């Protein structure tokens, strides 16, 4: 049956003319919508949190719930494709994504929104791998690189447009419209995809599914995410709930590892970690991506909550990250098989660390120009990050291992992004509490600067209570700014510390890994 599937795939002729253009646009549109939703909510978290009556920290569940569900569903892509066919699965998941988006926009409580985001993330998991496969089948083999370059640009542009579009919609309309816009876009993508590709369905096979492994995966990843998100609110291990979640995480992970290493058809092939390059490449991309993603969530939260920026302004500050990324990524893609990928990775880590170090020197007086400079530079790091590190992870693997390796690599990277978001927001709050306490120790009635500030507030017409409330607000601004700077500085150190790890790998030039890397991210 496998031979029949391969034979059918090889018989598909490349698309021609307007049909190829329509097919490419349809698949790219669905992918764009998918990736857009990983970042469009970032700058809207304060508005969503305020409207639904929760804290901004709890509001980040809108991001992490999507990411965790997305990560868990990625390893199922291969099995689902064989079972239902790639075109049928792509159309159904895109349609479900539209329905979930509609529910997100209609949500009247945070639990309802999170539930809808879980559904949205779960169906989003298979969409990107499927879109790559369908797109490659539309072009001649010799034009595969061009197709993947177009695909990469789509993935890079969407995170840039996301914060800007999300901020503009939130400021000028209301946050539900960041989800409602998916409805017409998704329906157009579904209709066009079905028109173009319905006669190009892949062969279907029935294979056993590792149901036990999938349940254990969802249990330990979900428990860990809940523990990280709820830890601060419940005072960490002083809470029985957090202790129970920690125990569930540890036991679930142990059982998951034991089961996956012995099952004949594991949902996650952990045996891939026997390869040095895969282990090092996957560990590096996961840790670095977790650090990076945590910072791009933290930055707009700080700007909007404590620096007085609107969602649109915060989006503009994040938007320039795509400029250098779009320009340099095609160049990196063409040279990744000619230059040792460890040099590319080292360069990306140094630039990422430089960006974090620059942000660690911000202050409450920072202007928009200064805020945007690191964001522009960060684009160069992104261009040298995904493709080379994925090539490193896949280096030396057999062609038959690429699909499983790509799925596992993406699962761990996406999970790290969700964990990084929770860890960053928790540490930010904890460090801010510490800085607030230290500042208040000095800002007493016996402190000349504090007395002078209270007097000035009084001259502005504030009552005593108003003056103290305003002073506390200023202290909060300083405390959360210092806390953000601490995290940016720590990120720089962590990113530099990952460089020696990369050089322990022994990448092989060319081969299946290099060929697959251009579209794996």
Compile the SSE list and pairings.
Layout: H1 2-11, H2 17-36, H3 45-52, H4 56-59, H5 61-73, H6 77-84, H7 86-106, H8 110-124, H9 127-137, H10 144-172, H11 177-180, H12 182-197, H13 211-230, H14 240-262, H15 276-306, H16 311-318, H17 321-335, H18 341-359, H19 368-383, H20 386-394, H21 402-442, H22 448-459, H23 464-502, H24 511-520
Please tell me about this protein's structure.
- With 521 residues, this protein is mostly helical.
- The chain has helices at 2-11, 17-36, 45-52, 56-59, 61-73, 77-84, 86-106, 110-124, 127-137, 144-172, 177-180, 182-197, 211-230, 240-262, 276-306, 311-318, 321-335, 341-359, 368-383, 386-394, 402-442, 448-459, 464-502, 511-520.
- Helix 7 (86-106) packs antiparallel against helix 12, helix 13 (211-230) packs parallel to helix 21 and helix 22 crosses helix 23.
- The longest helix has 41 residues, at 402-442.
- The two termini are 29 Å apart.
């Amino acid at each position: 049956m496998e031979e029949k599937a391969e034979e059918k795939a090889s018989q598909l002729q490349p698309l021609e003319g307007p049909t190829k253009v329509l097919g490419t646009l349809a698949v790219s549109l669905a992918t764009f919508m998918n990736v857009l939703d990983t970042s469009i909510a970032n700058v809207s978290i304060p508005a969503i949190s305020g409207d639904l009556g929760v804290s901004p920290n709890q509001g980040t569940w809108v991001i992490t719930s999507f990411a965790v569900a997305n990560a868990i569903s990625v390893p199922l892509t291969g099995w689902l494709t064989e079972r239902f066919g790639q075109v049928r699965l792509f159309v159904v998941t895109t349609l479900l994504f539209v329905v979930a988006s509609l529910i997100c926009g209609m949500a009247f409580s945070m639990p309802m929104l999170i539930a809808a985001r879980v559904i949205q993330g779960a169906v989003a998991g298979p969409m990107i791998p499927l879109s790559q496969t369908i797109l490659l089948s539309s072009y001649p083999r010799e034009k595969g690189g061009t197709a993947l370059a177009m695909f990469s640009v789509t993935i890079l542009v969407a995170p840039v447009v996301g914060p800007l579009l999300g901020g503009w919609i939130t400021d000028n309309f209301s946050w539900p419209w960041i989800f409602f816009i998916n409805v017409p876009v998704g329906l157009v993508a579904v209709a066009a995809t079905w028109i173009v590709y319905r006669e190009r369905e892949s062969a279907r096979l029935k294979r056993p599914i590792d149901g036990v492994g999938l349940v254990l995966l969802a249990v330990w990843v979900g428990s860990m995410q809940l523990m990280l998100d709820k830890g601060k609110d419940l005072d960490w291990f002083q809470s029985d709930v957090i202790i129970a979640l920690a125990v569930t995480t540890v036991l679930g992970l142990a059982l998951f590892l034991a089961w996956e290493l012995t099952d004949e058809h594991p949902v996650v092939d952990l045996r891939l970690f026997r390869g040095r390059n895969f282990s090092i490449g996957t560990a590096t991309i996961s840790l670095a991506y977790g650090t990076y993603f945590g910072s791009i969530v933290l930055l707009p939260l700080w700007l909007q909550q404590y620096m007085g920026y609107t969602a649109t302004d915060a989006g503009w500050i994040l938007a320039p990250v795509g400029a250098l990324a779009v320009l340099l990524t095609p160049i990196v893609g063409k040279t990744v098989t000619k230059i040792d990928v460890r040099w590319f990775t080292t360069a990306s880590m140094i630039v990422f660390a430089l960006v974090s170090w620059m942000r660690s020197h911000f202050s409450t007086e920072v202007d928009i120009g200064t805020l945007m400079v690191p964001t522009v530079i960060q684009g160069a790091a992104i261009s040298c990050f995904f493709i080379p590190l994925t090539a490193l992870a896949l280096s030396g693997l057999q062609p038959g291992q690429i699909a499983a390796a790509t799925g596992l690599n993406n699962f761990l990277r996406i999970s790290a992004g969700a964990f990084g978001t929770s860890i960053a927001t928790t540490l930010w709050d904890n460090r801010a509490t510490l800085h607030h306490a230290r500042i208040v120790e000095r800002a007493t009635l016996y402190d000349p600067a504090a007395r002078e500030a209270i007097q000035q507030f009084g001259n502005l017409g504030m009552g005593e209570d108003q003056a103290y409330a305003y002073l506390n607000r200023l202290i909060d601004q300083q405390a959360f700014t210092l806390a953000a700077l601490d995290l940016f500085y720590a990120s720089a150190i962590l990113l530099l510390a990952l460089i020696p790890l990369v050089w322990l790998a022994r990448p092989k030039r060319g081969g299946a890994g290099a060929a697959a890397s251009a579209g794996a991210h």
